[in-house]
Amino acid sequence: MRKRWRMTAFILCMSLCMCACASKNEEEHKTEAEKKIENPSEIVEKEYQKKLDAIEPAAYGNVSGLELEAGSYISIIGKGRDGEYWKQVEAGARQAAADLNEELGYKGKDEVRVTYSGPAEADNVDEQVNILDEELARYPIGLSISIADTKACGVQFDLALDNGIPIVAFDSGSDYQGLMATVSTDNSGSAQTAAEKMAELMGESGEIIIFVQDSTSMSAMERENGFAEKIKADYPELSITQIYHMDQLDEVKEAMVKERYPQSMEENSTEENSTEEKSAEELKAEELAAEITVEEIMDYILEKNPQVKGIYGTDGTAVRAAAEAIARAERDDIIVIGYDGDEEELEALRDGRVKGLMIQNPFGMGYAAVVASARAALSMGNEAYVDTGVMWVTQENLESEAVKAWLY
Questions:
Q1: Which among 92, 172, 175, 246 could bridge 367 via Cys, Cβ 3.0 to 4.6 Å?
Q2: First-to-final CA distance of the chain
Q3: Closest by CA position to 112, among listed 337, 370, 382
Q4: Rounded CA separation 349/359 (Å)
């Protein structure tokens, strides 16, 4: 009887051990998402979570269900490498990679790799195209790019699709038909909101100048057109007197040279002057124009537009240039608003040189761009447009918790 009891006890003990081992083994193989669902009290909100919560559709703010193969490679290409904005894009992309590897349990050589690259000089189209060529030669499972020039990458995109590499646009897209998705701010909608804010700040009357970051990217075009069309449609007492593209300021330079050095621009029609002498004059004019700085151009524009009451900048470069110009001119009567939120812009907002900023979500863009690329690689399907959100920030709400969660 005692032997039978001992045998029963032994079998029971072994069964319990086996169940415990099986339970432990099962627990170890659960994904992080499954563990969080079972233990919601253990969830601690990540410091960047609000940036992901702003993304619509919400599926692009997490990596759930993206069963990528071990060692998969995704390439992200921005318009630049330096600057707080692009560093936030890179941080978001790298966080998505970290979350993917945690979710899938990949380590070491099995990890999903995500790289970020971009031109050393922001918006350098030729360098971006060269980077695109190099990245396509590495055959990533997916590639996301902020397109600096809407007309520059068609050949490369065709090649990518021929080789089964899906292309996702982020930050700034194009009309290319083969894009799997576009991940960005609602540029047209936010530009219309900016127009409403400008109208309110200006009392719905006065003259406005627009400074656009470039003449080639879709994001710039959408922000310019959205703002201008809203002003024209709804505010008859407001007028846009000038629109300047920051990459097309040669006409302003020529006007400045003519005024400052008229002798260098005069066409001498006397028979005494040879073609060589005329060429020398032209070269002198070009040399003088090349020496003119952006600061001098902005000062000249303000000088020639003394009646202007509002300036709208479509990115941080344009906003900073405008804020610095009105400070030099001591024009406290000019209202400046625009996009982005690096430290210089926020300082200008605090001291009143800038009245409002459309703060974007570059971290969310980088994150969602990786998710969209992964979905395309897995043939899961994508939304044509993924909205990463935007927030209107002023001196009044700058210190709020909601805004602080979005700052770069």
A1: 92
A2: 75
A3: 370
A4: 12
User: What is the distance between the alpha carbons of residues 312 and 282, in angstroms, rounded to a whole number?
Assistant: 34
Backbone angles phi, psi at 403, to 5 degrees: -70, -45
Q: 240 — phi, psi (to 5°)?
A: -95, 110
Tell me if 74 sits within 8 A of 112, measured CB to CB. Answer: yes
Is the separation of the CB atoms in 215 and 248 below 8 Å? Answer: yes
User: What's the angle, vertex CA 200, arms to CA 213 and CA 202, rounded to 5?
Assistant: 75
Q: Shortest CA distance to 166 belongs to which of 145, 146, 143?
A: 143
List strands edge to edge, sheet with 238-245: 238-245, 206-212, 308-313, 335-339, 356-359, 391-393
In sequence order, the 6+-apart residues with CB closer than 8 A to the CB of 73 are: 112, 113, 114, 115, 138, 139, 140, 141
Closest CA to 166 of 395, 382, 364: 382
What is the C-alpha to C-alpha distance for residues 205 and 231, in angstroms, rounded to an integer? 10
Indicate yes or no: pTM above 0.70. Answer: yes
Note whether 117 and 77 are within 8 A (CB): yes
Of 219, 201, 223, nearest to 336 by C-alpha is: 201
β-bridge mates for residue 142, sequence order: 74
> With helix as H, strand as E and coil as C, how does 258-286 read?
HHHCHHHHCCCCCCCCCHHHHHHHHHHHH
Collapsing DSSP states into helix, strand and coil, what is residue 75?
A: strand
pLDDT over 70 at 123, yes or no: yes
Contact between 322 and 244 (Cβ < 8 Å): no
Structural domains of the chain sorted by starting position, each given as residue range(s) with its CATH number in brackets: 45-185+361-388 (3.40.50.2300), 187-359 (3.40.50.2300)
Provide mean pLDDT across the span 238-244: 97
Q: Are 197 and 231 a contacting pair, CB within 8 Å? A: no
Q: Tell me: the pLDDT tens digits for 338-355?
A: 999 999 999 999 999 999
User: For helices 218-234 and 187-201, what crossing angle results, to 10°?
Assistant: 40
